[in-house]
C-alpha cells in the first residue's frame, strides 16, 4: 500500500463550477481505481491524499502533475503505508466539505508525517486545512 499527499494552488481562471466538476470527476475516477483518500479545497489551495497500490497511484499522480487546473504542486508525503487511513469513507474517496471530516486528515498527518520535520512555512500552509 502506498500514499501520496500534496498541496497545490488553483489557477486563476478556475471558478466554483470548475472546482465542483473537478471534485466529482476525482471521486469517480479514484473510486474506479480503488484509491481511497480525500480532496480538500480552501482559499485557492488544494490538498489531496491518495491511498492505494503504488503501481496505480504513481501513474495517476504523474497525470495529476500535468493537470492545468492547478499549479505549484508541493509533495508533503510519498511513502509506503501499512494500512489505509481513509478506508471507511463512503465510496472510498471523499471530498471533504465540512470541518468535522478533517479529523481523519489530522490522524493521517500525525501517523505518517513527522510534524517536527516540517518547516514553519509548511505548517502555516497546512494549518487552515486542520482547523
Question: What descriptive keywords fit this protein?
Answer:
131 residues, Alpha-Beta Plaits, 4 helices, 5 strands, 36% helix, globular
How would the blueprint of this fold be written?
Layout: E1 2-10, H1 16-32, E2 36-42, E3 45-52, H2 54-66, E4 70-80, E5 93-95, H3 103-112, H4 120-126
Parallel strand pairs: 2-5
Antiparallel strand pairs: 1-3, 1-4, 2-3
| Number of domain units | 1
Question: How big is the Rg?
Answer: 14 Å
> What's the helical proportion of residues?
25-40%
Number of helices: 4
Side-by-side strand order of the widest sheet = 4-1-3-2-5
Strand proportion, as a percent range, falls in 25-35%
- Tell me the number of strands: 5
Query: What name does the CATH topology carry?
Result: Alpha-Beta Plaits
User: What is the CATH architecture assignment?
Assistant: 2-Layer Sandwich
User: In whole angstroms, how far apart are the ends?
Assistant: 28 Å
Shape assignment: globular
Structural class: alpha+beta
Could you give a short description of this structure?
By secondary structure, this protein is of the alpha+beta class.
Describe the structure.
The chain is 36% helix and 29% strand. With 131 residues, the chain is an alpha+beta fold. It has one domain (2-130): Alpha-Beta Plaits (2-Layer Sandwich), CATH 3.30.70. Strands 4-1-3-2-5 form a five-stranded mixed β-sheet, covered by helices on one side. The longest helix is centred in the first third of the chain and has 17 residues, at 16-32. The protein starts with a strand and ends in a 5-residue tail after the last helix.
Amino acid at each position: 500500500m502506498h500514499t501520496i499527499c500534496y498541496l497545490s494552488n488553483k489557477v486563476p481562471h478556475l471558478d466554483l463550477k470548475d472546482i465542483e466538476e473537478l471534485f466529482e470527476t476525482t471521486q469517480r475516477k479514484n473510486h474506479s481505481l480503488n484509491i481511497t483518500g480525500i480532496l480538500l479545497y480552501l482559499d485557492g489551495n488544494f490538498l489531496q491524499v491518495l491511498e492505494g497500490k503504488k503501481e496505480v497511484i504513481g501513474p495517476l499522480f504523474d497525470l495529476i502533475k500535468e493537470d492545468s487546473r492547478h499549479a505549484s504542486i508541493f509533495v508533503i508525503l510519498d511513502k509506503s503505508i501499512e494500512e489505509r487511513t481513509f478506508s471507511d469513507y463512503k465510496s472510498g474517496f471523499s471530498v471533504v466539505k465540512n470541518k468535522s471530516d478533517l479529523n481523519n486528515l489530522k490522524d493521517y498527518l500525525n501517523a505518517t508525517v513527522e510534524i517536527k520535520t516540517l518547516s514553519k512555512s509548511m505548517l502555516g500552509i497546512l494549518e487552515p486545512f486542520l482547523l
